[in-house]
Automatic annotation (TrEMBL):
Name of the featured protein: Nitroreductase/quinone reductase family protein
Entry-linked InterPro entries: F420H2_quin_Rdtase, Split_barrel_FMN-bd
Catalytic activity, reaction form: oxidized coenzyme F420-(gamma-L-Glu)(n) + a quinol + H(+) = reduced coenzyme F420-(gamma-L-Glu)(n) + a quinone
Family membership: Belongs to the F420H(2)-dependent quinone reductase family.
Residues annotated as transmembrane: none
Organism: Novosphingobium kalidii
Domain of life according to the entry: Bacteria
Pfam families: F420H2_quin_red
Length: 171
């Protein structure tokens, strides 16, 4: 996918993503976890998590909403950026830190993350696409392999607040 196409898709989604993130955070996770994504080729009960990470250049804290699937007790997200030819900023920031914080509905965790490879990735990818079918279109639109990230919960942390984010992602 060209950078121009990715930018156009990003602009359309930006408002929805900001509203979704705000709803999730303001409700403490009672809203925003399950969303109807049928208008964009998803499922009517699509699951969403929040990912909290620190910017590798700015040092600011960001919170991003992502669709997820549960595989063997690990939360799986995809660094798709809507099928753009480059990785999303959240992923580039995440790979610099072995610790991750994420929230599922009304529960937040500090834990670890990893990327499945080989036979495991070949098993996880079709399951993830079955949960969120539009990711296959994202993969088909780019030459890069869309990274899958598996999050493993460790200790509990307080649910995320809007004030936790010292930076606002523009794209």
């Amino acid at each position: 996918m060209s950078d121009e196409s990715a930018a156009a898709i990003s602009a359309v989604r930006r408002d929805w993503a900001a509203e979704h993130r705000e709803k999730y955070l303001r409700s403490g996770g009672t809203e925003g976890h399950i969303e109807d994504l049928t208008p964009v080729g998803g499922r009517p009960f699509a699951t969403h998590c929040l990912l909290k990470y620190t910017g590798r250049k700015s040092g600011k804290v960001f919170i991003t909403g992502l669709t997820y699937a549960d595989v063997g007790g690990e939360v799986v997200v995809c660094a798709s950026k809507g099928g753009a030819d480059q990785h999303p900023n959240w992923y580039l920031n995440l790979i610099n830190d072995p610790v991750v914080e994420f929230q599922i509905a009304t529960q937040a965790f500090r834990g670890s993350w990893r990327e499945p490879t080989g036979a495991e990735r070949e098993k996880v990818w079709p399951f993830f696409v079955d949960c969120h079918p539009f990711y296959q279109a994202y993969q088909d639109s780019t030459e890069r392999l869309l990274p899958l990230v598996m999050l493993k919960a460790g200790s509990r942390v307080p649910v995320f607040q809007e004030s936790d984010a010292t930076g606002i992602r523009q794209s």
